[in-house]
Amino acid sequence: MSSVSLEKIDIHYGKxxxxxxxxLHIRDGEFLVLLGPxxxxxxxxxxxxxxxxxxxxxxxxFNDKDVTWVDPKDRxxxxxxxxxxxxxxxxxxxxxxxxxxxxxxxRATIDKKVTWAAxxxxxxxxxxxxxxxxxxxxxxxxxxxxxxxxxxxxxxxDEPLSNxxxxxxxxxxxxxxxxHKALKSTMIYVTHDxxxxxxxxxxxxxxxxxxxxxxxxxxxxxxxxANAFVGSFLGSPAMxxxxxxxxxxxxxxxxxxxxxxxxVSSYPFAQKVEAARKVVLGLRPEHIVPANGSAPVIExxxxxxxxxxxxxxxxxxxxxxxxxxxxxxxxxxxVDHPFAVTIDVQKASFFDVETGWRL
Amino acid sequence: xxRVTPPTIVVKRPLSYQEVWGRVGIYAFLGMLAxxxxxxAYVMLVTSFKGMDEIRLGHIFTLPQQFSVDAWVKxxxxxxxxxxxxxxxxxxxxxxxxxxxxxxxxxxxxxxNGYALSFWKVKGANVLFACLLLGSFIPYxxxxxxxxxxxxxxxxxxxxxxxxxxxxxxxMPVMTLLFRNYYSGLPVELFKAARVDGAGFWKIFFAxxxxxxxxxxxxxxxxxxxxxxxDFLLGLVFAGRDNLPMxxxxxxxxxxxxxxxxxxxxxxxxMLTSLVPLTVYLVSGRWFVRGIASGAVKG
Amino acid sequence: MGAHFTRxxxxxxxxxxxxxxxxxxxxxxxxxTLAWSVRLSFSSSRLxxxxxxxxxxxxxxxxxxxxxxxxxxxLVIIAFFFLLICFILGCLLAIFIDQNVRAESLFRTVxxxxxAMSFVVAGLIWQWILNPDLGIQQTMRGLGFSGFVLDWVxxxxxxxxxxxxxxxxxxxxxxxxxxxxxxxGIDSEIWKATRIDGIPTWRVYLSIILPMLRPMIITSLVxxxxxxxxxxxxxxxxxxxxxxxxxxxxxxxxxxxxFERANIGLATAASTVMLITVMFIMAPVLYFQYFxxxxxSS
Lengths: 359, 299, 298
Fold this sequence. Notes:
The complex is a heterotrimer of chains A (359), B (299) and C (298).
Chain A: E1 4-13, E2 16-26, E3 31-35, H1 42-50, E4 57-62, E5 65-66, E6 77-80, H2 92-102, H3 107-120, H4 136-148, E7 154-158, H5 166-183, E8 186-191, H6 194-200, E9 203-208, E10 211-216, H7 218-223, H8 228-233, E11 240-249, E12 252-257, E13 260-263, E14 278-283, E15 288-290, E16 298-307, E17 312-318, E18 321-327, E19 338-343, E20 349-352
Parallel strand pairs in A: 3-8, 3-9, 6-7, 7-8
Antiparallel strand pairs in A: 1-2, 1-4, 4-5, 9-10, 11-12, 11-14, 12-13, 14-20, 15-19, 16-17, 16-19, 17-18
Chain B: H1 17-48, H2 52-55, H3 70-77, H4 89-119, H5 125-137, H6 141-154, H7 160-184, H8 188-196, H9 201-209, H10 214-230, H11 233-238, H12 246-255, H13 263-284, H14 286-295
Helix pairs in contact in B: 1-13, 3-13, 4-7, 4-10, 4-12, 5-7, 7-10, 10-13, 10-14, 12-13
Chain C: H1 2-11, H2 13-18, H3 20-40, H4 57-62, H5 66-97, H6 104-116, H7 119-129, H8 136-142, H9 159-184, H10 188-197, H11 201-212, H12 214-229, H13 233-238, H14 250-259, H15 264-297
Helix pairs in contact in C: 3-15, 5-9, 5-12, 6-9, 7-9, 9-12, 12-15, 14-15
């Protein structure tokens, strides 16, 4: 069991500044997901935690012990990679036991550990095979098994499911979640897939350009994105963004963009905002619901619908503003017909036009 | 590499006149050139089985009237370089003695260099490598004289170690490039996983990387055997009188004979000298081409 | 940064040690010898190296030496025709072989086998075939063409073409092999697209395929250029620079001055000129092919 602290980490690759003065504390037993687009520095950061990349400056602490310059093998970590990284010339059994053999453990202990991990991951029948004879899902199970036998305090996952098809991905996602529940180890998981992040994480750190944009629970990251980037990076279908300004009128506050006007008095602003301020309104499609009579209604005209299976994503124009919104199959939403909606202002987000930060 | 659909004729249908003539043209062109390319080998072969009386008639393309292997025996056992009539076999064994250690060591060093360059972030290594690559473009003549002086100082000039060392030096750019490119194609994560597993520099090299290097090692062996066997200049300068490789001895036999030239012996000797690289070429097939392609400058 | 670097070295110490042989080779065998060679070209060294400094006088002498000027001129002629013919021949061979021909591997084998053989061997074979007394010339005369002349190896005016013939025979297969590998790597959908657009085959090769093979073409031309600048063995075996000095080349000029004529200063000046020439040709190619690509891809 271990906590992980990163203090003022900087990583340069030649002239590229990959990670910028990054601070992060990961609690003992926590499942932390590093989420971000490719090139945001998340994998580099994970490699640095594993000791596979040198940091340019800053400190890495495991349980308050400085491990910045400790060799990977002495950090008590297990690591799982996107490409599985199984040693192609060795059988599954030898793949899993390679590290233990290097550490000089005796045969009986090695066998016990390998058997335990193989049973946990249901790969016992594959132990004698070479990696080339395995399917993608089986390979990743073996790779996880190889990390498990190391008795690691911290597990590092580098996009472990990205090479798998959708069905296997969902299956192994569940597997990893069960594993975390059973082992209670600290796990750091890098992905660009928001579903993985939301389903697995205790906390998500959303990264961009080597900087953590927001560090919070999945629900908070989703519902209260710290800035416009986080807002649009998470959520599928994507968040609507409308640029406009705030207008005060009779003690009430309105958002205006052209002829589009929305009463936003109920929005819980985090700070005092003055009227006439330029803002970006972020609205998730599921927070624009078909009108049910009670709340203020906005009329629009449907221009396009995309059936998603369980529900329908409609694109409609409301007073000159094009918004995507969710409708049910029975809500009678048809292309070129008018449609009325209610906007849940409390769940909306406002961002500063210039900085993009949440208001 | 998958075989790409050929550009012509996809559907089986009767060919038009134009297409028939097109095919004829293609085969005529290829056939004529094949003849031109094959001709020297043919002439070499038939000449080597003729007697000198027959050669003097001046029909180089005819098959031997009296088939004889005397020229081959003579070339191998008793052809003369000046006064020294020991045959090409001396050169053959010298070449073997040069090729085996030169090839082994240069491949091993190339593999280690390539491995260190592509997986270990050693500062300054890429600058060194760039210098090495540049060096491979520079004519040997620039390096030869200083090397001769250094070897003379070290007391190894004109010896087997000198020629082996020289082949290692001049083989290093291409061997390093070959292995570096191959290893760059392997997933880095493999290396990272091994580091997490606690393996060090040599353990990773011998337990993981080397077992995966079979294909590229074959290419490297082919390249080095042919290159070192075919070398003339370095052998001439560095090997010394007692270790002259086969190519140098061949040239001495052919070009320094006094009196009438024994063309049949010369051609048998030429055949014998080509035998090793030709065998390598014919056996290795596509691997040989792969070697040419990967030995070239590619990022 | 200093302490940082020390820790980096400590963690990767074995890797540094493993690269020592390479470092030694680069520093001593390449850079050191090169510097020494250049240094000697500014001295008056003859049989033994001297440490004096005579400025550019060796270079002045060099360009007053008819044999050197002949060598340079010969190299230019040989290189020009060699590269041109090898390239055109190699291209045609590759394209024709790519037409789904029967016995493809036989053709490939025949066109490339000379490349597997030594330059010495190539030189000796062609010396024999072109031998005016017993070679093709005599054979043709024996067949009744009494005026037939093919005396290239002994004719000072034609001897360069004899060398070009032997080197082209040796090197065209390389272009063919590399381009054929490139042709096989081209996406078949390109061919489908051009067929739908109705573009004639020759036009597709010229305007689409060859430009796509640019890296292969450059690679083969670079390899051939290096081999022709280094050209020594084939000349020694075929003509030994003769008749007279009609087929002298720079590489041979240097070797002769180093080891037979005992004129080290002149030889190193000549080798420095070769060095500069090679750098001049290679620098842009290397930059575009190697350094820039590796810079942007990693």
